Amino acid sequence: MTSRQDHSARFPILQGVPPITAAQIPGEILAGVTLAAIAVPEVMGYTKIAGTPVITGLYTILIPTALFALFGSSRHLVVGADSATAAILAGGLVGIASTGSGEYVGLTGVLALMAAGFLILARLLRLGFLADFLSRTVLIGFLTGVGIQVALGEIAGMLGLKGGGHGTLEKVWNDLRQVGQVNRYELMIALSVLVVIVGLKMVSKKIPGALIAAIGALVVSWAFGLDKQVHVVGAVPSGLPPLGLPKVAWSWHVMSNLIPTAFAMFVVILAQSAATSRALATRYDERFSENTDLVGLALANIGAGLSGTFAVNGSPTKTQILDSAGGRSQLSLLVMVTMVVLILLFLTEALMYLPEAALSAIVFLIGVDLIDLAGMRSIFEQRRSEFWLAVVTALTVVFVGVEQGILLAIALSLVNHTKHGYRPKNAVLVPDESDNWQPKPVATAAQAAPGLVIYRFTHSLYYANSQQFSDEVSLLASSTEPPLRWLCLDAGAVDDVDYTAAETVRSVHAKLKAKSIQLVVAHEMEELTTHAHHPLWELFGKDAFYERLKDVVTLYRQKFNIAAPSRFAPEPKNKTNT
Known about the structure:
- The chain has 578 residues and is mainly α.
- The chain has two domains: 24-418, no CATH class; 427-559, 2-Layer Sandwich (Transcription Regulator spoIIAA).
- The protein has helices spanning 2-10, 25-50, 54-60, 63-71, 83-92, 102-124, 136-153, 155-159, 168-177, 184-203, 209-223, 252-283, 290-306, 316-324, 331-346, 356-370, 373-382, 384-399, 402-422, 466-479, 499-514, 526-529, 535-540, 549-559; strands at 79-80, 313-314, 427-431, 437-440, 452-456, 486-490, 518-522, 545-546.
- The strands form two sheets. Strands 4-3-5-6-7-8 form a six-stranded mixed beta sheet.
């Protein structure tokens, strides 16, 4: 790990490649070729979700992937087209431009550049930690909803129907109305592709089933002239993508309409990429920098916007595929980029006979894979309340929209986080026969010594839970027997006190003082230790703070001449903080 850090210090690029030995290179090359074989048909399928020409899918794993491989820090994260971001942009452009038109493609590039702008801003402000605020619960619900939406959206393509409609319900309704117009050729192609992919996956997940199925469908279409019976991809431009700003009518009106969609994409990119990188880094006991990855992701999306394609994201599925194939560094990604260059230069002409039903079937399975029933079941068994949050998120994605779904996911994550701190499970502490502290419900008002209650608050003190603090202290002050003389706040878990909470503490202190009850603090609050002139220091007085609960009990017994049990031997000196 040290050698890699030294190398990174000298060379700000290629942090995801070294250290690497000559013996590893053949394995990296093989992994890159394997990933290309799986990713190429997959990203072509993503264009059906995004509503862009097939060639734009190949562009997503060219310049964007190369830029992240050069400037990211993760050795394992695969950056490219992703179903979630593709679905978000498609939903965000509804009613703004005609799907597949030049203006539409240009706006997808603008969204990629705007997402990159948010990523750069996040890097400048060191906001990589924001990825932690999209909880795994709602992320599972979000991706499950995307999977359902994506899978249902491809039914028309697999059946050869005209389809139509914007929302999921409207699309399904139109499919049902047109069910008598099913194209049997396209249905057979779609079913064959599904059987091949699923069957080969059951044999081995390393077999590029999607590539084999796509090539098979292409050969059959060409050999039997099925282009007259089914919809095919058609002419695909060859060569490398032209570079330049997206060709759109740039205006503040256009940009302002796209900001919510770009922000939703940014959140998914940030959360999904960081979660995937962290999982693989943990697996291999490696370090990665979320902030450095933000730079790589921003550059990747700038590359996407300038090369005529749509936003890219860290892909959990492709990352797992690369890991299973033996790829252990970004060198594999550079090999895949090389393979895509060869395809763009020499093989695009053959793609014109590829049936669209085959791509629809591939995307349908991608959607099905995103539906995380095992994850939903696990949440249901462990945290019933969080399960319903995941369900609400999934239903919002399916019935309202992906963009709204991710924004709701953010809100629900924050609400869920706030909920845990809003009603913390506090306790009063009493010593047992072995001198260990045992928590008891606050309602018991159990005393650690006659007239002494030790009250443990288990969360940061802030505006939302300060009333609970006040209520519980008032309960303890009025319901203990014998009457309370000291109330000790065990503040070991209180690492922050906001203004509202500080005022509440001040009020509580005054009420206790009026009842001749002294408020003392054990395991002093970090908020006070880091602010030498904090107002609470002056309010409590320095002698009210203790390092250990045992010190509080010992001094209390000495002061009020209360006999100490044998387990509490008197100490010669009160160890207060000064």
